[in-house]
Every structure is written in structure tokens, then in C-alpha cells.
Specification:
CATH superfamily of the largest domain: DD-peptidase/beta-lactamase superfamily
Strand content: 15-25%
Bound molecules: glutamine
CATH class of the largest domain: Alpha Beta
Shape: elongated
Order of helices and strands: HEEEHHHEHHHEHHHEEEHEEHEHEHEH
Largest sheet: 5 strands, antiparallel
Helix content: 40-55%
Oligomer: single chain
Structural class: alpha+beta
Strand order of the largest sheet: 2-1-8-7-6
Number of strands: 13
């Protein structure tokens, strides 16, 4: 089961409990429009979860291989977004939910542009955007990308590929329709590359790592490799949230509240940003092509662990750990990660301690772990304002901390004593690069 000690393994216990209980659900039907998929055992049921520390948890048949099918779509979308950027990709593939099934002719009436990259039409256009001089080269790029997301070399189930190539007229028709409207960035034969992409073999464990990589801002939490940028991971998750579950996306967002993607072989991934990636595999599908046991499992997990992304987030610790106000001086110490919310708190702390006229303000950031762009901008703007108003400003920060880099315009000191000393006596201090 999990690689963690079994005694404290509440996560595995939850997955095992879901496996045992939801395994009894026998609604839905195994997809049979790709003949080879119809051979899948409807009782197969695997669950896997991967945390941001790369811890892996699983239950049931999580090691059993199956073809990735439509769960490949967000990852190939990530590939082309990394290559060309959102503006260029959006010229070819829209970003609106279609409100229709995965294989519908959801093309804009005037342009022929497919509604989004999660439906077949959009995914075929996405695959056509993948760079490569030949089909082989293009497919190698796709396989390499999916493998990096999974953290291991993946391969193709040739029998499933053949089976879909022999029967995939509807997808071929979609490709020709787009091509006739000038909306396909390649030849209609690209549909075969799309079939190969759908036939890439994965396990439930692989899908959980792939989902966790999106949850982790594009960095694979198991291998440590940066597969795509944080921006691209965020863009992909946004489209998954609005379009990943086809015409069931609204109900899914309401009830489960996590970006997700399903596939006809029974795979389903869901992403809890900055927390984990989760995957379920169970072949029987409901009317919208979603694995029945997968939906049930995700609904329960989301509720049990409070994962709905619209939930009010809890803050674990206060940002301001010390706030001292004197007649001529003020001091604020902060801790943790400085994002927008934490910075907003910090600014309140700073206004509370700032002396009426002149004097000095020391901001101690030694216990601040990270500062994102919005946090850094807010703090920098506030410090500039204090200086304009005639206060002496000093920042205490580890000389090599990344948090300090955003605050280079201000006098920086490695210890509070040196900062206070400089404020009171104007002495040089150590490590200062200040303006005064
Ligand atoms: N290969 C399948 C198709 O194109 C993928 C569809 C899916 O998984 N929803 O029809």
C-alpha cells in the first residue's frame, strides 16, 4: 500500500474503505465503441493519491495498466501551452464549456474552432499543434511529455490503438470538419496521432502522479522535475474545472469542487491545488461517459477531507508574530508565506506601529519562508510609502533568503539588533544596501 508507516496511514485507510464499499456499485456500462475497450473487466477498481511531498497512497488495482484515453487531453494541452502560450493556442482551441458530450460537433459556427481542449474536437486540434516534422516526432513529444508528468517512461497499447484506428470514423469526421473550415492546424491525418495518444498505457498510480504534478504548479512531486510552468499548470486546471467533465462539468464543480478529467477507459483524475492529485480507475461509465465509481469516490473524498476549492481556506498561523509601537519607533515581525492575504495582514501590523512623525520602522522577516509576487509588491509599496512620509525603514532578512530579493531597495540587515542600531545611530550595519 502506501510507502508511509502503516500505523498512521489514515489516507490509505480511507482509500481502502472506499475501494471496499464502492466496489459494490454496479451501475454504468463499459465503453464498447472502441471494441478493445469492451474487453475491460468491469470489476477492476483502483484508487491512488499523491501528495505534494511525493507520498503515494493507493488501494485496489492501482497498479493495473489501462489506456489513458481522454485523461491525456489536459497534459497535451499543457504541452502546447508551454510551447506557444495561451493567446496563440486559444486562436485554435476555445476555452468555453461546450455543454455537450465528449464527441459532439462542438465547433463555433462561424470559425469551426472547437469549444475547448477537453472534448475530442478540441483535443484533436491540440494534438495538431504539437511541434514535429513528422507524425512520429510529434508523437514522441507527446509520449515524452506524458512520461514526464507520470515520472516514468510510458508506452502504447498497440491493440487499443489499432482498435480505435479501425473504428474511429466519428473522430476522423471531426478532423475533416475542422479542416474544411480552416480550423485544424495540421492535416486531418493527425487524428491517428490523437488515437495513439489515447492508447498510451498508464496505471492509476501514474495518473495520480500526473494529477499531483498539476497540483504542484507543474513540478512532479515524485521526481522533482519541472514539467511545465506554474502559469501553464494553472491555465490547464482552469480549463479542467470548467470543461473537464464535459456536459456534467457544472454539477461536478458544485458537488466535488475540484478540477478533473475523465476518460472512456474508466480513468478519472482530480486535482486539489497545492494539496494533492488523485486518480480512480473503474471501467463502467454513466451516460456522460464518466466512471460511476470514480464520481462516487471523489464526491466522498472531497466531502470527507473538505476539499471543495470554493471553501473558505483556514490559516494555520498568524502572520504578525510581534508588533511593538514606541514614540519614535515601530517594529513588526512576521512569519510564514507572504501571499496577498498575509501581506494584507502585515500592512495592518505596520500601520499600527508606525510613529506619528519621522522615527523608524523595522520589519523583521527572518521567519518568512516565501513571498509571492503579490505579497512582495504590497510590502514593497508599503515600505516606499513609509519612506516618502519621512520614516527610516530597515528590513531584517536572511542575506540569502529569496524573500529579501524583492526588497533590495531598502536597508537590509541579518539581525534585528543591527537594524535597530542603524535606525537609532545611523551606523552602517552589515549587509545593508540601502537608499539612505
Ligand atoms: N479515444 C477516445 C475517443 O476519442 C477518448 C474519448 C474519451 O476518453 N472520452 O473517442
Amino acid at each position: 500500500m502506501a510507502t508511509d508507516g502503516p500505523v498512521l496511514d489514515v489516507v490509505t485507510e480511507s482509500l481502502v474503505e472506499l475501494y471496499e464499499r464502492l466496489g459494490a456499485l454496479d451501475d454504468g456500462a463499459v465503453a464498447d465503441y472502441i471494441p478493445q475497450l469492451a474487453l475491460a473487466d468491469p470489476d477492476t477498481f483502483g484508487l491512488s493519491l499523491v501528495s505534494m511531498d511525493g507520498h503515494r497512497y493507493q488501494a485496489g488495482d492501482a497498479e493495473m495498466p489501462f489506456t489513458v484515453q481522454s485523461v491525456s487531453k489536459p497534459f497535451v494541452y499543457a504541452l502546447v501551452l508551454s510551447e506557444f502560450g495561451l493567446e496563440e493556442v486559444t486562436r485554435w482551441v476555445g476555452t468555453e464549456p461546450s455543454g455537450e458530450g465528449y464527441n459532439a460537433i462542438s465547433l463555433e459556427p462561424d470559425t469551426g474552432r472547437p469549444d475547448n481542449a477537453m472534448i475530442n474536437a478540441g483535443a484533436i486540434a491540440t494534438t495538431a499543434l504539437v511541434p514535429g516534422a513528422t507524425c512520429e516526432e510529434r508523437f514522441e513529444r507527446i509520449l515524452d511529455c506524458l512520461s514526464r508528468f507520470a515520472g516514468r517512461g510510458l508506452d502504447v497499447d498497440e491493440a487499443v490503438h489499432r482498435s480505435e484506428a479501425e473504428t474511429g470514423d466519428r473522430n476522423r469526421a471531426l478532423a475533416y470538419l475542422m479542416s474544411s473550415a480552416g480550423a485544424l492546424p495540421g492535416a486531418p491525418s493527425v487524428v491517428d496521432t490523437y488515437f495513439r495518444q489515447c492508447a498510451v498505457r498508464v496505471t492509476t498510480g501514474d495518473l495520480a502522479v500526473m494529477a499531483a504534478t498539476l497540483a504542484n504548479g507543474g513540478v512532479n512531486p515524485v521526481t522533482g522535475e519541472t514539467v511545465v510552468s506554474e502559469t501553464v499548470a494553472c491555465q490547464v486546471l482552469a480549463v479542467m474545472a470548467s470543461c473537464g467533465m464535459y456536459d456534467a462539468s457544472g454539477a461536478w464543480l458544485l458537488r466535488v469542487g475540484l478540477p478533473a478529467k475523465s476518460g472512456v477507459s474508466g480513468g478519472l483524475i482530480a486535482v486539489s491545488p497545492a494539496r494533492f492529485g488523485v486518480a480512480v480507475h473503474s471501467p463502467p461509465l454513466d451516460a456522460s461517459g464518466t466512471p460511476v465509481r470514480g464520481v462516487a469516490a471523489l464526491r466522498e473524498l472531497s466531502e470527507r477531507f473538505g476539499l471543495h476549492m470554493m471553501r473558505h481556506p483556514t490559516r494555520s498561523a498568524p502572520t504578525v508574530t510581534e508588533a511593538d509601537r514606541g514614540v519614535r519607533q515601530g517594529l513588526v515581525a512576521a512569519q510564514g508565506a507572504l501571499d496577498f492575504t498575509a501581506a494584507e495582514r502585515l500592512l495592518h501590523g505596520l500601520s499600527d506601529v508606525t510613529p506619528q512623525d519621522g522615527g523608524w520602522v523595522v520589519l523583521d522577516l527572518l521567519d518568512v519562508t516565501t513571498m509571492d509576487t503579490s505579497g512582495a509588491t504590497m510590502v514593497a509599496t508599503a515600505l516606499a510609502r513609509l519612506e516618502e512620509e519621512g520614516h527610516r525603514v530597515a528590513v531584517v532578512v536572511e542575506p540569502r533568503a529569496t524573500a529579501g530579493a524583492a526588497l533590495t531597495p531598502w536597508r537590509r540587515f541579518p539581525s534585528r539588533e543591527e537594524a535597530v542600531d542603524w535606525c537609532e545611530n545611523g551606523s552602517a550595519g552589515v549587509g545593508g544596501t540601502g537608499r539612505t
